[in-house]
Structures are given as C-alpha cells and as structure tokens.
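Researcher: Go.
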Amino acid sequence: MLQVQLEVRPDPAEVGRARRWARSRLAGSGIGADEPLAETLILLISELVTNAVVHTGSTARLRMCFSGSGAVVGTVRVEVVDTSARPPRPRHADGDDTNGRGLELVDGLADRWGWQREGTGKRIWCEVDRGQPLLLTTGADTGAYDPLRPVPVAATKRA
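Model: Structure:
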C-alpha cells in the first residue's frame, strides 16, 4: 500500500493546492488524468478538504492511500484529519442554496465513507474502488443520503 499526505492550512486557497497536489499523486500512482476515477477522486478531495477548512478553522491533514501492487491500483482511500471533535453533519441543500451538498456528493460518489474520532479531532474518509462503476444512486435501499438518518461511524454504500 502506498500512502501520501499533505498538511492543509485553514485557508480556502488551500483547497486548490490540495487538488493540484492530489492530481500529481494520482498520476504518479498510475491513475491517468483522463480516467473518470481521477476526476471523482479530485471532487471527493475538494469536498472533504473544503469542509475541514471552512468548518474547523484549523490545520488538517489530507492523506491518500492506494491499495494494490506496483502500477495496479485497486482501492483509493482519501482521509482528512482535523482537530475539531464536532462530527460531520450532512445537510440537504434546497434549490438555489450555495452550500450543503458536500456530504451528499461524497455519499453519491464514494463506494464507502465514514468518520471516526481521532485524538481530540476526527478523521473523515471515503474509498473508491478502481474498476467499479461510479454511479450516483438515490433511495434508502441503496444506502444513499437520508437527511433524517444519523451519520454512522462507518457508513458503507456497496457491498
């Protein structure tokens, strides 16, 4: 397993820096920029880093873990560790709302996601399996976002 990480300062400009850093790491792991997986991972990273920067106001760590051997990547795990003990709170955005969609996107794009306490803060993570179809799903029977459902410590979407 290959693991890389980046420290992210509490500045909205850091989101762009995290995306650029992640693109270079994806390319180095054998995931081509033209693969749908790369764009999906960049969107997931953007959402998780944005949440950490906007909602905690403190430094965070972005970590990417690549499973597999050699140039064959199986699952990519993205983690953002921050110093806020406040659990993530999925919201449901209405119509023209300009925020509140982040965790809905994570739930729709990742194969699995969840969070756990880490020290005095928390770790939010998501995983995408290479080679799996990336489908946006809806409805409670698929494990999709439900604003009335509490956020589990470890949510899974596809078995």
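Model: Strands lie at 2-8, 60-69, 72-82, 112-118, 121-129, 154-156.
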